[in-house]
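Anyone? Bumping this.
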Amino acid sequence: MTQLSPPDREDIQGILLSGFGHLYYTYYLLLTVTDAVAAKNWLKRTLPTITTAGRWPQDANGKTIKPDLTLNLALTHDGLRTLWLVEKALNTFPREFIEGMAEPKRAEILGDTGTSAPSQWDFGGDNGAPLHLMVLLHGQSLEQLRTYGQTLLADNSGLEVVAIEEGFRLPSKKEHFGFNDSVSQPEIKDLETPGHDPAQVVATGEFLLGYPDGYGIFALTPVVPNSDDPDDLLPSFPGRELPGYKNFGHNGSFMVYRKLPQDVAGFWQYMASQTRGADGQPDPQGMNLIASKFVGRWPSGAPLTLSPDQDKPELANENNFLYMPTDAKGRGCPLGAHIRRTNPRDSLLDAPGQGSLITSSRHRILRRGSLFGEPLFPLDDLDQGQIPVDLQDDGQSRGLHFFCFNADIGRQFEFVQQTWANNPRFDGLYDEKDPIIGDNDDGQGRFAMPRCPVRQRASHIPRFVGMAGGGYFFMPSMSALQFLTT
Amino acid sequence: MRQVLDAIAADLANNAYFQIARSDRTHFLRLAIITDPDHGPRLLMTGNYDGSLVDYLQELARLSPGLDDLWNHCTGYRGRQDFNRFIQAHTYKAQASYVAVQGESVGSIRKRRNIRQKLQQLLDLDDMANYLDHPGLKPLLDDLTSLKQPRTIWQGLRMLMIQTWQVIEQVFNGLCDLIKQIMLWILRQTGGILGAPDQPRLIGEYVGSEVDYERIRTLNEAEVVHGTNHLHLLSTVKRGRLLRLKIVLLLVNVAGRHLFPPGSLSNIRSIHFAHWSIVDGGKHLLFVTHYDGSFDNYLGDFTDRASDGLNSVWNNVEGYPLAGAQDIFAFKQFFRNDQQLPSQVFYRAYPDTTVVNILRDRAIVQPLAEGLDRPALDDWLTEP
């Protein structure tokens, strides 16, 4: 088992290998460059404060000293161009990154349509200043982060704020609908810890450039000609296949950011409407069951495949399971449920079992994120069976700051979105989209739930998760940032 | 000709030239202008149809008020009465072909889909859904399915003979299956040898090169985000590799027609039709296919489940990645490079029905159809 070397860890930005689970607050600065020279100098000054993935130190008692504030940053293609990355290198990036998230065909692929179209976004869309740079801060309180964020740009940074986004995370790891949203993460091969499920292990090159990906080959990575790197800041390629180039992408990754507003009242009102009996009263247990069928996990995080009839908090963090042995037909977790679409594991009907696991492993993403907006109801109470039967909207915006990392945006993030989540005919289904994140703009979404004696089908599903802004970023390694600022 | 094709594409059912959308026999049809240095511009028509070619050409002529306006632009076309001869004279047969669901006509696919949709709507009716939800339903079904007809000694004897016959049938089925598995194993071994990468690589072939993304955008623009898409590819056969290519296609043809279950080409279930033809006197390989979903999904499936087979076909043509299909970016790029041909006209008889949908419709509707004897059903339903 190879492991990432300590120098590589020092070269990789910290958020790629850690979600900073001990820091509950986040602060994101979306920036545009107004003065390229000043911005470059600012970047150079800021380099030493960037949190790397280097091992955290230990105190005298052997206790790990965790950072109380972290800083990471990523750039868009526009940003790289503005900061004078050599033209030759700019053209070696993949198409999705060059075009950006708001390009019309991309928006169609991603389901960013209707009220979620790029013309409606708060930032990163058709209107407003172009996004060049994103700074991600994690800390212990919002006050700490606000103060830090202000001082960060105070001194002739050459940067202007397009948007500031604040976020937080809950100890229960819930999102706004009330579900545990942090269970399924791929295990990176070169960070593998003993005892983990081999089915969840994914090649390092699926998330970090400069390593073999799921096909055993380096994915497309940006390069610069040797002559453009006289100080030898960037690594060469191993072997003799590309002697004339340096790997600008090495130890970097592509970052997808999406601000996703959630219609929490709409979600639970829909569940109520599906379970109203003859007396007009909704059935809380029924609401919980259908909502959980939509997700594929119970509010605690317990997978329906392992516990089809009731929530089992002892299974809350269970991710070591397959569909085919006990749930091939989807009577526990329906075929179209959110988690079964976004990671079908062994259940793709083309090649159920091993073949499906290989395919699934080539379309994984590494998720990060935080919530925005106050919760509309006590989320933790869901686990005790307290279902919000009569939820009213308060007009406040709330949702998820969704982040993910991948080596190939087209083959990973966009593929999951287009071919799995939003595909009306995913895995043999007829006409339904992901019931949670699907682009059911017309309010005509459907969702089939196999069960005995007759299948049930939810209809008239509206869009529950919107899209309010974001972009495709590249998170360079420390050496690549050094190269950029030299 | 481009103007005529654009007019057809703009309204597939009501244009003044070729009303292809009114066809009862066409699964897919495409018209594309292709250009290469040896021949200049040519019109390529590819189609999948039911029945014989002669009957089909008659239908096409009948649907073409402006038949001459379209085909007069082609050298050698001598008017409506000559259409049949003209097309047949310029037709290429496929060296290898794959049809997902053999024996299904456009009519039967649509009919099954409509029946299945009706059944679904029926189940979704409020009253029906409530009734089906009724706790009493399951015991009723259990009772119904547990009922057995009392059996006489002769019926028992008959059952015994049927069972004996079934055992013999199973033995034969097992034998056939074994032969099939052996043939598949031999083919896979052959594919492994003929499809071995020319040069294994650690770093993708396209790393560091400037890709023509504008061309990809143009090709991608016409593809639907959800639904059936198509692809055709005209590649140049490498010098001295024609015979090898022909042998490989022969093997692919056997496998595609006889060795895989319906709707599955080497465990890929998103392909409606695939054809390989050697054209231009052995100079070019023409590949035509219709598939469900995105280009990335289609080629990803290819790599995940059929890379040896694909390598052994396309390593005989120019421009194929040295490391084969495992170099996934280069592999996709091979299909996107100047060999992929955009179509001017593309008609699909059932754009939102996937191969898997067709098979599921059959599985849902066929047992009902076979279990029902119309006169007996009428009697049963109408009696008091």
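Late reply, but here is one note on the structure posted above: The mean pLDDT of chain A is 93.
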